[in-house]
Design a protein that fits this description.
- By secondary structure, the protein is of the alpha/beta class.
- It folds into two domains: 4-65, no CATH class; 66-295, Vaccinia Virus protein VP39 (Rossmann fold, 3-Layer(aba) Sandwich), CATH 3.40.50.150.
- 29% of the residues lie in helices and 18% in strands.
- The protein has ten helices and twelve strands.
- The chain has helices spanning 13-25, 27-36, 41-50, 100-113, 144-147, 163-172, 198-204, 222-227, 230-235, 251-256; strands at residues 74-76, 81-86, 89-92, 134-138, 155-159, 180-183, 186-187, 195-196, 212-216, 239-244, 263-267, 290-295.
- It has a seven-stranded mixed β-sheet. A three-stranded antiparallel β-sheet has the order 1-2-3. It has a two-stranded parallel ribbon with strand order 7-8.
- The chain is globular, with a radius of gyration of 19 Å.
- The two termini are 38 Å apart.
- Mean pLDDT is 94; it is low at 1-6.
Length: 296
């Protein structure tokens, strides 16, 4: 269980199953609450979905588009890892994904999360990394976020501490060693052997004055990452952030409180029912997935 800063979020299979069973057992009262709010169009969209489906983290019909359809997957015998072709690249899966079924399931879920209709989508046509900008991907995992932008980016820094994902990232981006940097540290509100503040990192790497696009999907530690970026956020007008706000119930409010009126904050479309948070079972249940933040 991820119990960082008092938060309790499932991170093992047994915990995921526990949370899913508990959500199903409690879905009656959750559905009733959603229905009671259906005068709001966004609630009504969820209510319409839940009227014929069980509770789901992504309570929208578009999700069914990713349950079918052919997806290619191959095994690279030289390293023992499975990869998924995506556009002109090979996206490698970590070695624990030993079956094609598991690798495809994972990758389809990533594609679903970044569907333009998804509340988890980081970007829009007008809010995304621009040419020659520096991308900082905090919580990189398989590195999917940077795939569409790596060719035009000035540099990409992917923060990922899982050694299995680090190995996969090196394979995925093996042709981009000149601009891809994989950082095996946690981004936080302190500097020590295993942690680094964004303020420290951008100064040490000489990118504080660059145009930055920062994506933060860090299992609930997003507010602490922002606390470690105060100097950067106070001094630069060339920063855009896509910050996940769904891991904890109060995180949308907490994240918004860290920015003054000089910033424009736009939530992603719709809501998530993130029942993998052990503290999920309080109204209103729904949570914004991503806050897109830029100077007004």
């Amino acid at each position: 269980m991820n119990d960082l800063y008092g938060m309790k979020i499932a991170d093992r299979n047994s915990e995921f199953i526990h949370c899913e069973v508990k959500a199903v057992l409690n879905q009656g009262r959750i559905k009733r609450y959603i229905a009671s709010q259906s005068a709001d169009d966004e609630y009504k969209e969820i209510d319409d979905y839940l009227s014929s489906h069980r509770i789901d983290v992504f309570p929208y019909n578009f999700k069914s588009d990713y349950k079918t359809g052919y997806l290619e997957a191959y095994k690279d015998e030289s390293c023992g890892m499975i990869y998924i072709p995506y556009k002109n690249m090979k996206v490698y899966m970590r070695k624990m994904y030993t079956s094609f079924f598991r690798a495809k399931f994972y990758f389809k879920n990533i594609l679903m999360e970044q569907d333009v209709r998804s509340p988890h989508r980081y970007t829009t046509d007008s809010f995304r990394p621009r040419e020659n900008s520096v991308i900082i991907d905090i919580g990189g995992a398989e590195g999917f976020f940077s795939l569409d932008y790596v060719d035009k980016a000035k540099a990409v820094y992917i923060f990922e501490c899982d050694p299995d994902w680090n190995e996969a990232l090196l394979k995925t981006y093996q042709d981009y060693s000149d601009k891809i940097h994989i950082v095996n540290k946690f981004v936080s509100d302190r500097d020590d052997e295993h942690n680094v503040k964004l303020d420290t990192f951008v100064k040490e790497n000489g990118i504080a004055d660059d145009e930055l696009f920062i994506k933060i999907d860090a299992e609930g530690s997003e507010p602490y990452i922002l606390d470690g970026a105060r100097q950067l956020l106070d001094s630069s007008s060339r920063v855009k952030l896509a910050v996940c706000s769904y891991h904890c119930a109060d995180h949308e409010q907490v994240i918004r409180s860290k920015f003054d009126d000089s910033w424009k904050i736009t939530p992603s479309h719709g809501y998530m029912l993130y029942y993998y948070d052990y503290n999920f079972y309080d109204e209103p249940y729904v949570r914004r997935g991503v806050l897109r933040i830029e100077k007004a």
